[in-house]
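User: I'm putting together a small comparison set for a docking exercise, and I want a reference complex before I start. The sequence is below, and the ligand is cytidine-5'-triphosphate. Could you produce the 3D structure with the ligand included, as structure tokens?
Assistant: Of course. I'll restate your input first, then give the structure tokens for the complex.
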Amino acid sequence: MLAGKHILLIIGGGIAAFKSLDLIRRLRERGAEVTPVLTAAGSEFVTPLSVSALAGKPVFQALFDLNDEAEMGHIQLSRVADLVVVAPATADLMAKMAQGLANDLASTLLLATDTPVLIAPAMNVRMWQHPATQRNIETLMADGIGMVGPNAGDMACGEFGPGRMAEPLEIVANIEARLADGPLRGKRILVTSGPTHEPIDPVRYIANRSSGAQGAALGRALAALGAHVVFVTGPADVPPPEGVEVIRVQTALQMLEAVQGALPADAAIFAAAVADWRVSSASDRKLKKSKDGLPELSFAENPDILKTVSRMPEGRPGLVIGFAAETNDVVDNATAKRARKGCDWILANDVSPETGIMGGDENAVTLISDAGAEVWQRMGKDAVARKLAARIAQALG
Ligand code: CTP
């Protein structure tokens, strides 16, 4: 629900602007107030009348409009909302944002605002992939701008690939997660998720069966309680949750670097199934079959990310939580693992094939802490996540 929340919605000039009309409706259905701003290019795709009719209030369009300025100055307009949403965010608008240009109402508001900003990019696939756009995205991410989408698919221009604006309901879910009020509001929580891929050569890698489902559920549950979630994920099967800051990595070494870069945090939860070893002899060329026999792979041990963070002499998160994937003597092994790694809590789970937990929808965990071992009944991964998020909220309270 978004009751009492105020969204400043900037509609840029792209064919996806028609979806923003539905977005306004969906936001208002959930109780949000929407103040619309339409760029000159945006008004080529949707009319000011339809935007204001759906928003239930006038649409702002020009920087130097005497009436608008008399009603609400542009600086004031940039400050009224809980969140500024740019949908569609065109390549041009994103370039202006990255450069700090302020030559129309939308770009001026984006430069003047002190509220968080979420962009929903939409553009032709080549424009999206252009190095200039990718550079701008990197700048915007570094500036703390949130992003939802773009999705891949058929495009209005007849091409195929990434560049389609996220669907209105995806944008709404992202906004809801960002504006969630709850006991974790103001807390920064790091979550690792998914498997890692350790390259053998440019086309082959070593991986594991983790789908990333438990980590994604955890990220979603923490965001729903208002946390700012930094979600460091390996190449998972399930998409990352909406409304979290996503950092994508491939290998364990990259995951460690991303985690260290994301600290400090109030809590850190290590749900990733990190490969214990990497191929130290990884080749930068594809290994070829050879009459001299099979290739010899040598291995190096990966850093233990959970242990490294648990034992940080300075800047350790107040609450560090690990998972213990075990196939036998689950509680004993996990209790020993907790002591070895130095984390505060460990969630032990039985991942032997007959449980169907690895890659499945359910999980049966035992929470091991200073207080001992607490068995949780088998339940959906979402329910485990919600229960754990509530416990974290209590602990950080
Ligand atoms: N973990 C980590 N970095 C690693 C290995 C594991 O951060 N290189 C974290 C996992 O995210 C999980 C916990 O450590 O929270 C335990 O992972 P698990 O695979 O159960 O344990 P391992 O340390 O790999 O021990 P073993 O394989 O011997 O059971």
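The mean pLDDT is 93. The pocket of cytidine-5'-triphosphate is lined by residues 192, 252, 270, 272, 274, 276, 302, 304-306, 322-325 (CB under 6 Å).
User: Thanks, that's exactly what I needed.
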